[in-house]
Amino acid sequence: MIHNQNVTNVHRREFIAAGSAMAAATSLSSIAHAESLFKGKAEHVISIWLGGGMGALDTFDPKRVGDPKAKVAGSYYDSVETAVDGVRVCEHLRQLAPLMDRVTAVRTVHHEVINEHAAATNFMHTGRPVSGTVVYPSLGSVVAHERGAAADGVPSYVLIGYPNVTRGPGFLGARDGYLYLTDTSQGPAGLSRPESIAAERQTRRERFLEDLRKAQPASEDARVAEYEAAIDQSLKLSGPEFNHSFRLETEPDDLRQRYGGEFGQRCLLARRLIERGVRFIEVSHNLNFLNGSGWDVHNGGILQQHALIQELDSAVSTLITDLEQKQMLDNTLIVISTEFGRPPEFDSGGGRGHQGSSFTCVLAGGGLQHCGAYGETDDLGKQIVDSPVSVADLFATIHAAVGIDYTKSLYDGDRPVPITDMGQPLAKLFG
Predict the structure, then answer these.
(1) For the chain, what are the domain ranges?
(2) Residues pairing with 50 in the sheet
(3) Do residues 177 and 168 touch, judged by C-beta distance below 8 A?
């Protein structure tokens, strides 16, 4: 009997020792995994969306000049040197050219969605093709979910442009959705108190709401809790502190003029919102009135494409220098993305079609080790020659830059979903 008890004690000690060793190994493995991840120090993202499809060889990946009338493939414009040796950009990006040492034009982004704007837009916002079983969250919603707002009383995610499901939270739920506005002169619809509602009257309304809440029985329904949280958030956002962010007239006149027109004012507002503590902001630049077609330059739309490029140039260059002067550039990642690129050949109307085999997205600031340009395309920008970058890789780079574990999974109910489609960050940008 004593012998059996001794054996049992030995087995117990061996079991405990084995369990402790396994726990220690798991802990060490977790530490090693965390230490092996690329992790940047950016705190905010300003994502600039060029709806329609920006042509890389007419902007950030110029090639030899073509001739639309003679149907000779090539760039539409001449190019200029930049602050980075060997890196050239379109002549209409003259203000960005001397700042390209704070920028990386990722020239080798690619996907297989070519001829459908909506599907490609979804891909470039969620990092995945449309699925019949899963509604994937947008990049902005994932960043909002993982990092939350950087201050109390502000939303984590703001969209300056028209709302769309591709920008939404998908399976993450409404809590990680966006607040949107379309006009920088007015701010978000529904958050500005009408002039007829004085502060005293608003206070009485809030007291009445509080009395109603106290009179209601407690509920464990998550939907009720989310609804109550949304009411509390809207009350905070309608207050004077957050709404002050939209008073662009308080900025110096010369600075506002340097930012430029409505798109530039959106970029200025984005800077003010990150100062307030918003984590992720998308700024839409598809204002068709400049050239009649936005960045979708089929046929005659290309004739005034330079107006779009010049507006992008003045707004983004001013945003970079403004953030830098306020010592905010290193903790603010600027992303310029688009649904696909344009081919070097000209169509029958002198414009360009769609191209997904290679196109350019741009990263700036965010504490990254910038190199002017990443990746190489062939002599006409049709095919990738070196360092291809999948959309998942681009997303993983953005996640890593803002300190998000790009290897983790999110959960659609009890179903694990990798946060990116197995993407890997661009190691060169993390030093």
Answers:
(1) 1-36, 41-190+244-430, 193-237
(2) none
(3) yes
CA 82 to chain centre: 25
355-400 per-position pLDDT tens digit: 999 999 999 999 999 999 999 999 999 999 999 999 999 999 999 9
Counting Cα atoms < 13 Å in the Cβ hemisphere of 204 gives 5
CA distance 381 to 319: 28
The fold for domain 41-190+244-430 equals: Alkaline Phosphatase, subunit A (3.40.720)
In this prediction, residues 76-105 reach a mean pLDDT of 98
CA dihedral of 58, 64, 70, 71, whole degrees rounded to 10? -60
Spatial neighbors of 223 by CB under 8 A, at least 6 apart, are none
Report the SS3 class of residue 402: coil
Q: pLDDT tens across 5-59, in order?
A: 555 555 666 655 555 555 444 444 444 555 689 999 999 999 999 999 999 999 9
Q: Distance from CA of residue 225 to its chain's centroid?
A: 29
Q: Answer whether 403's CB lies under 8 Å from 42's CB.
A: yes
Residues contacting 147, CB < 8 A, separation 6+? 43, 156, 279, 402, 403, 404
> How would you label 330-344 residue by residue, b for 16+ Cβ within 10 Å and e otherwise?
bbbbbbbbbbbbbbb
Q: 273: phi > 0 → left, psi -120 to 50 → alpha, else beta; which?
A: alpha
Is the separation of the CB atoms in 260 and 315 below 8 Å? yes
The pLDDT value recorded for residue 26 is 45
Q: Residue 123 in contact with residue 132, Cβ under 8 Å?
A: no
